Amino acid sequence: PSGTEAITKALELLGSKEVAIPSYTCEGLLKGTLAAGCKPHIVDCCFDLQINLDSLSKFKGDTVIVPHMFGIRAEVKEIKDMGYNVIEDCSQCLGLNGLGSYSDYVVVSVGSTKWLSVGGGGFLIGNGCDKVPFTGNYTDFSSAEYMVDKIQDKLKKRTEFANELINAGVN
Hints:
Blueprint: H1 3-14, E1 18-22, H2 27-35, E2 39-43, H3 53-56, E3 63-67, H4 76-81, E4 85-89, E5 105-109, E6 122-125, H5 144-167
Parallel strand pairs: 1-2, 1-3, 3-4, 4-5
Antiparallel strand pairs: 5-6
Helix pairs in contact: 1-2
């Protein structure tokens, strides 16, 4: 499974018909939306590359996919309070506190270009996900320790790189 497939399954579980996607994001959001048979609507972003709430307020559909671009926290609660179904894409913000608190589903891609890559794949988190049949290649993660160790390893390396930059005086 992939992050794109997780988006498709989340849209299907929500029964979504029309989906708002920010103008700046990866193509996987659009591909997942189209694969679910939904009509995509592109909404503007602000200078911080997060969804522009004024642009979103004109959207008359039912679901919004909310990525946290470059690890900057998007205004998920405010979007949920506008009455939309929310799919939170956490692929670029693992480690932020409170993720998933206001969304209906959380999707995470751990592909090779993502902040936390474990060799590819994706996750769908939310009610009813245990009944979702995924297709494609699987890695046997029957031992949760395997995944935790792999993620902790990647996180440790990312933290070491960040500390090198900080110690070199780079902000």
